[in-house]
Amino acid sequence: LVFELIGDSRFPKARVEGLMTVAAQLMPDRWSGGVCPFAAGWRKVMMWVFIVTDGLLFAGFLGGYGYARTMSSQWPDQSAVFDLRYIAVMTFVLISSSLTMANAVGAAQNRQRRLGFRWLLLTIAGGVGFLGMQAYEWAHLIEVGARLDGNPWGDPLFGSFFFLLTGFHGTHVLVGVIVLATTAFRWGKGLASAAGVELAGLYWHFVDLVWVFLFTLFYLV
Amino acid sequence: MRATGGTSHSNKLYWTTWWVLLALTVLMLVIDSMVMPRSIFVSVLLTAMLVKASLIGAHFMHLRFERRSLALMVIVGLLINGAILFGLIVPDAIRIRMMVP
């Protein structure tokens, strides 16, 4: 029955996913594959697969950073280079945007269209704020001599990894803001489903998650 | 309480998570300004980092409420591959560091 309904475009996708969940729970052995082994729609599973692979990309960058950092005898003291209170405010903005995103997903699942839209707008504002602060930080460090191939504070790789790690993360934030703006527009027009908002939320929380690692490993340790 | 069936989670959980994340961030900054042995400093910061990451994954990303097979796919996949990366790369860096006079 479920397979027939999946192919029937007249049947709402949410109902199909609900049926798939029930079917998965009835499966005698959840590890044998079956209809829906993760009890989640394919879009959510694929988003998680993307998050794992993208996470490994960042793990590779951080592994390279760890290598350079351990090998270096002239790694600069971060507290002498960065204003850590400023970085803490950036962290606060991103963590808060994760809270607003979680609330947006909750509102979407409760079919509160207007409330969900407002939470999404707040999340976008947080993302834009974070990007603005990062642009200011980059401009300031470039002004005082930080470059991809050198810096005034010590090991040249310090500048390389700063621009690589924060630049790559910042690009993810920018993509997240675009995804959220598209989702908010579609949600506001009644075109997006609660599942679509949840997927955008998963990506946004991942961006926050990566920042937790960067903040600790690059700015503090 | 499962996310899969479209059930939402309470706002209280999100706000509590946010407060804990905030408190941990402040704690990390306080520790950063304190004088202590490097090994303790690094251990405390890494522990706080992992707690923060777990909270975001479990509560904001709903992994705690997903089926265990999905959570295991994500956590084990990341942990094993991350451990391989760091386990193979960093000891080599330490060896090279020791070779430099």
Helix content of chain B: over 70%
C-alpha end-to-end distance of chain B: 59 Å
Give me the Rg of chain A, rounded. 21 Å
**H and E string of chain A:** HHHHHHHH
Instruction: Return residue spans of chain B where pLDDT drops below 50 for at least 5 consecutive residues.
Output: 1-7
Share of residues in strands of chain B: under 5%
Task: Indicate the mean pLDDT of chain A.
Answer: 89
Tally of DSSP β-strands of chain B: 0
The helix content of chain A, as a percent range, equals: over 70%
Offer a quick outline of the entry.
Chain A is an all-alpha fold and about 220 residues long. Chain A has helices at about 1-5, 15-25, 40-70, 80, 85-110, 115-145, 155-190, 195-220. Chain A has 8 helices and no strands.
What this model shows, in words?
The complex is a heterodimer of chains A (221) and B (101). Chain A is mainly alpha-helical. In chain A, 77% of the residues lie in helices and 0% in strands. Chain A has 8 helices and no strands. Chain A has helices at 2-6, 13-26, 42-71, 78-81, 84-109, 113-143, 156-188, 194-220. The mean pLDDT of chain A is 89. With 101 residues, chain B is mostly helical. Helix content of chain B is 77%, strand content 0%. Chain B has 3 helices and no strands. Chain B has helices at 11-33, 38-60, 68-99. The radius of gyration of chain B is 18 Å and the shape is flat. Chain B starts with 10 loop residues before the first helix and ends with a helix. Mean pLDDT of chain B is 86; it is low at 1-7.
Descriptive labels:
A: 221 residues, elongated, B: 101 residues, mainly alpha, 77% helix, disordered N terminus
List the helices and strands and how they pair.
The complex is a heterodimer of chains A (221) and B (101).
Chain A: H1 2-6, H2 13-26, H3 42-71, H4 78-81, H5 84-109, H6 113-143, H7 156-188, H8 194-220
Helix pairs in contact in A: 3-7, 3-8, 5-6, 5-8, 6-7, 7-8
Chain B: H1 11-33, H2 38-60, H3 68-99
Helix pairs in contact in B: 1-2
